[in-house]
Amino acid sequence: MKKQLLPAVIGLFCVLTAIFYFIGKSKPELNFPVLMGGNAIMLLLSIVGFLLVNNQVKNSPQAFVRGVYSASLLKLMVCMISIFIYVMLNRKNLQKPTVFMLFGIYAAYTFVETVLLSKMAREDK
User: Fold this and answer.
1) Which domain holds residue 39?
2) What pLDDT, on the 0 to 100 scale, is given for residue 17?
């Protein structure tokens, strides 16, 4: 299972990149570089979260849950701070669909990471 997380997260990155590319072509008002930046940041945070949780799986179930919560909280805080900075810098030309898509990126990565990490925890018992 440990070998499945990295390809799954990279696969999600590629799928989201393709989706953003095609949406960006049909709706040029969306901020494509911001979406790609958010996608890349979530990829890196998912890898960091996996490394945090991977060490906790062997200790105890409580440590595993703490690791998953801390990884999710780290991603959420980085996402919220990044979106706040984006909103403050682009106050006049703010695209609300871009902001909602950034939260969608967070939700997609969190869902994939949580499902795969919970499977990994069940296998290591």
Assistant:
1) 2-123
2) 93
Q: Which helix (H) or strand (E) holds 110?
A: helix 96-123
Query: Residue 79, exposed/middle/buried by CB under 10 A (0-12, 13-18, 19+)?
Result: buried
- Provide the mean pLDDT of the chain: 84
Q: What is the pLDDT of residue 43?
A: 92
Give the count of domains, the chain: 1
List, in sequence order, the alpha helices (H) in 1-125: 2-26, 32-57, 61-89, 96-123
Where is 58: in which H helix or E strand? none
What tens digit of pLDDT does each residue of 42-81 get? Answer: 999 988 888 877 777 667 777 777 877 888 888 889 989 9
**How crowded is residue 108: how many other Cβ atoms within 10 Å of its Cβ?**
16
- pTM across the whole model: 0.84
Q: Which of 117, 4, 121 is nearest to 50 (CA)?
A: 117
Count CB atoms within 10 A of the CB of residue 36. Answer: 17
